[in-house]
Structure formats: C-alpha cells, structure tokens
Amino acid sequence: MSGWIGDLRLRRWVFRCVAHGGFLCLFPLFHAQEPSTISIHWDKPVLVSKTTPTLQVVVNPPLRPGQPLGGAAYRALKDLGADYVRYVPWLPYPKLAVAELDAPTKDKTSWDFSLIDPMMKDFLEATEGHPAVIIFSTMPAWLFKTGAAVTYPTDPDQVEWNYTQGTELRDPTGKDLGDYYSRLVSWYVNGGFTDENGAAHTSGYHYKLPIWEVLNEPEYEHATTPEQYTARYDAIVAGIRRASPDMKFMGMVLATPREVPGYFEYFLNRANHAPSIPLDYISYHFYATPVAGQDVESWQYTFFDQATGFVNSVRYIEQIRKRLSPDTKTSVNEAGSILPIDNSPQDNIPPPARYWNLSGALFAHLFIELSKLQIDIVGESQLVGYPTQFPSVSMMNWQTNQPNARFWVLKLLKDAFHPGDTLADTSVGSPDSANISAQAFITPAGHALLLVNRRNRALDMVLPDADKASVLTVDEMSGESPARTVKPAGGRLRLEPFAVTVVKW
Question: Which residue among 204, 233, 313, 341 is the one 20 to 30 A from 227 at the CA level?
Fold first, then answer.
C-alpha cells in the first residue's frame, strides 16, 4: 500500500476493527516482523560449482574510440577482470559488424576493417589476460538470396534493423559462408588472408582467440530452422578451423530456448554434423520482461516468477544435453531484464533508480540457481545500452558514464565466487523463505554466503556467527559505487530492498 489509497484502506481497516470489538486486532500493525533464520550445514556439501559469472559487450557507437561512455566502460571492464566476456558486433550497425559488405566480383572485393579494428582492439586490450568469447554474428547480406540488393547506411552510427534479409544461402553448400569466416578469423589470428581474387590483405595481428560463438539468435535472424543452423554451424566451424585449428566453439545461441526444443534435439545429435565438427558449448539467453503498465512494485514479482520458469526450462535442456552430448558445456550468456519501453520514443526517460538494484538482484538469483545446475558460464547483459539501444539492459549509466548497480553486483559475484567452490546445504526459514535467495559456498578463502533480497522492502535475518562475519552489499545506498561494508547488529543483518549481499567468515 502506498499514497492516499493505502492510507484510505488502512483507515477503513482500523474502523472495522474498532467497530467489531476493540483495539486488539490492531496489534499486527505495530508488531515488528520477526527476522528470518538461515540454516547452513557446512558439513553437507551439495556439489562443486562449475559456474563463471561474466558479461557481454555489444558493439554500438558509444564504444567507438574517443567516446566518453566507451572509455569509462572499458576502464570498468578492465578493472573487473572477468573471464569469458562475450564480444558481439551485430546487425544494427552493418559497418561496425560486417567486414565485407558488398559481394566480391572478379575485379574487386570490399574487405574493410577500418571501423571494426579499433573497437576490436579496445575490447581485447580491456580483457587482456582473460579468455574471451568472440561472435561476429551478422553474416554479409550478399550471402543470401534476396529479391533485391540489401542496402546499408553510409553513416556507420546510423541504425539499420532490416539488414538481415533472406532465409536461403546463395551458395547452398555453405562454402562461401565458411570462407568468409575463415578470412575474418585469419585477419585477427594469422596476420591477414588472401581474398577471393588472390590478393593479399595484411593486418599484422596475431591474437589468441580461444572461443568463437557461431551466429546469434538464429530463430529470429534469417528465420533459421534447426537444420539450416546446424549446416551453417558446420560450414562456419570448418572454415574457422582452417585459420585457427585450436579454436573452441559455441553453438545455437538461442533467444527463446523454451520455445524451440527441436533445436536442442537436432543440434546436439552428433549424427546431424560432419564427423570432425566439435560441439564444445551450447548457449542461449534469458530476459525477464514485464508487461506495459507494470511498475517496480509489480516487476519484483514478474522478474522472479519468469526466472523460475526459465530455470525449470534449463533443467529440461540439461537432460537433453546430457543424453545426446554430455561433454558439451553450457553458457547462458545473455541474462538480464528488458523494460517494455526500450527502443521506443519514451526510452530516454531512465527507469527508477531502484530498477537497477532489482535487475542486479535478478542476476544474482540466477547465478545461484544456475550454479546449482552446474551451468558453466552465466553472462550478464550488457555493458553499454542507451536510449534507442535497450537502455534498461545497460550496466553503465549513459548520463554519468559510471557503472550502475548491475555492474557492481557482477563484480561482487566475480570477486567472491569461482568454479571449484563447494555449495553447502542452505535454506532460509520463515517468514521470508519466498523472499530471500541464499546459497553458502566453501571457497579457498573460507566460508561465504550469498544473499539476495527479492523484495522491494527491507528484510532482517538472524546471521550465524555475526560477530565474526564481514559483509559487503550492493543496494540503493551503495548507488553507483562499489559494494559497501555493512556491520551486523545484535546478531542480525538487514537486507535493504533488492540488496545483493556477500557474507564471509
């Protein structure tokens, strides 16, 4: 209840109580809720974590060299020091994502890395020393059969959402597709390549690119069927392995994994692939999305309810993977929330400040649940968003150029928890068993507990050995700053609305 409506309802309730016999029924109004208890059995290990928390970086104009937001974002990324950061040049900006925009002829080719390279170099410098996942997800439009030539803006910063046209490859064998990606990868790992007409193109780059993700959300882009995607995956992987034999690969990259189970059944069946094609990883995405008209009071329930549905789907997906290709790893490499006004004329109005804490709490909750399922990589989406480009997904404040609460939640998780930690038996008692997510970890540095307040109100918890604990939390009070230190009082710990808290002993 809030505002005059809540006050009116309260007055009516009080009147009814008095009218029916006195003031005893007012007692619940003034009786403080008892704090929740947490039960941790350090001597009961559940499983060993495989999960790495990380994020994705989507290419857009503010990340071009010299841009203040991009400079601040890459400094934050470098300080974060995360593994398996996902780098995604993609369709809205063809000149920033496609290295050969025009079909080759016998007289010339259109290979051009002049706008792509500076952004790629900034990303690789920011993630130096850490394995990254690269995904040039947008295929040149000329590879597809289309009614007319597909155009693209001359301005590299102009959005073009209609670039990915056509559903059938011009070359049904996939050779042209594989050759394009072979040359693209060779540019970065082998110092250059020879083009379609035999001309040499020299870059001088010899980067180590350990993992390549093949295309992006194919059920949307080019309306790709599981059979088409699997054939294109094989063609791209074969082409890239000619340039980089030791590369690992991620496949499927699905936007709506719950809606396309046939993808998992077909792609993970090795009989549907060429004998030499590896299935190193599968990947897919999840975004919680409220309906228009809801506000933060409703979002808190919508987000976590949708997360429960997604986690249940992951359980089924894991059974398919284990049955068909048990050695294949799993990456949920876009996880977050999107508000319904994104990319609309109203998206230049920032969401309420508490939204960023709610979205960070959602990611921390997913980290707990997917760690229990031993998912290998969980990636928060995304480093930079801004009006017209999914602003509610951003981990940077595009107005202040500062990391927001979503970023600081990721840093809190990344610094505290790692693959190899042991999950211990953990449960939250009443009254907040449905409001708090909790998981205890046994780490090389000692015992740690991750707590997530899933509600838009402060909650209290009795903390075991509170006098020996150190506590860091990301909440509204920490704002656009790193996690703040909290001191338990009287053996209790207060979790502010949508707080993400790490306790260490």
Answer: 313
